Amino acid sequence: MDNTKKIVTQFPLIQLWTDNESVFAKREKYLTVDNVQETLKKYPVEFVIADVGKKLEWISYDKSFDFWKTELKAHLADDINDIKLDKFLDNYAYVASEWTGEIETPIILLEKYH
Predict the structure, then answer these.
(1) Helix, strand, or coil here: 91?
(2) CA separation for the pair 58, 77 (Å, rounded)
(3) Is 72 exposed, middle or buried (0-12, 13-18, 19+ CB in 10 A)?
(4) What is the per-residue pLDDT across 10-21, written as a single tens digit (0 to 9) for each?
């Protein structure tokens, strides 16, 4: 399939891709707010936003800290089994997970629930 036309169809996501290629990585674990904050202190990361019906949106490592401060921190769910959207600003939340594999920069996938 042409990656430029690929969209997210369901959660949990089992594969990552860019417009140009498949990304050889897998989900290692789900992350809490504290986990993400600690990771950002140690490493540059790339965030990937997955929203059903849309293409994956990649946030490059040089913009990751600003994204964390302005968007993600207020919308990150800590308990993936009990997401109460009405407790989040604008009634949406992200579930974060760490992905590792044949990649240079750590990837944190953000599955968006609304």
Answers:
(1) helix
(2) 20
(3) buried
(4) 999 999 999 999
The DSSP 8-state label assigned to residue 76 in this structure reads B
Amino acid at 22: S
What would the pLDDT profile of 52-79 be if each residue is shown by its tens digit? 999 999 999 999 999 999 999 999 999 8
* CA 112 distance to own-chain centroid: 8
pTM > 0.85 = yes
Q: Which of 85, 80, 96, 105 is nearest to 33 (CA)?
A: 96
Q: Which of 76, 58, 75 is nearest to 17 (CA)?
A: 58
Going from N- to C-terminal start, the domains of the chain cover: 3-113
What is d(CA 46, CA 20) in angstroms, rounded to the nearest whole number? 16
